[in-house]
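[step 3/7] fold_predict: job queued, chain A
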Amino acid sequence: MMKTYKGRYKVENPMKYKGDHTSVIYRSSWELYTCKWCDRTPDVVEWSSEEVVIPYICGTDNRAHRYFMDFYVKYRSGEICIIEVKPAKQTKPPAGKRKTKQYLNEVTTYVKNASKWKAAEDYAATRGWKFVIWTEHELMRMEILPKPLKPLKKMPAFKKKKKVKKK
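[step 4/7] structure written:
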């Protein structure tokens, strides 16, 4: 299981940040790496974290909620994306033993996320933007995440030498 990291990100290029650059929060190491990437990538001309808020109706309780997008990114080309950073496992419907507490929890989370993502797609489309989900696969392909360390070679089992008794 991956440990989650939370903290404040100190923006290096405040002129690129859209919103309050003094209170940028990251809620995972992946979000921290994405903040650094947005801040340092010349092709990104404007970005923000959790500054775009999208209203949505959740499929779990049929009530109105607010979805704080992980990232807003405007590229030099003029393209604008709103981005959710999420583990790939959480982007697919859960598989497992039905009626277990864990399975029901995963179903509820998935329905809530699907409700958010539908609202984000609609919100982006009405503005000519794109909504994308970046999983660990995209983050590695884009070289936002550092390359994983190569596993160490497996060492042969240690065998104790038998002592030879002298007669």
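[step 5/7] annotate
Residues 101-127 form the longest helix (27 residues).
The helical segments are 29-40, 101-127, 136-141.
exit 0
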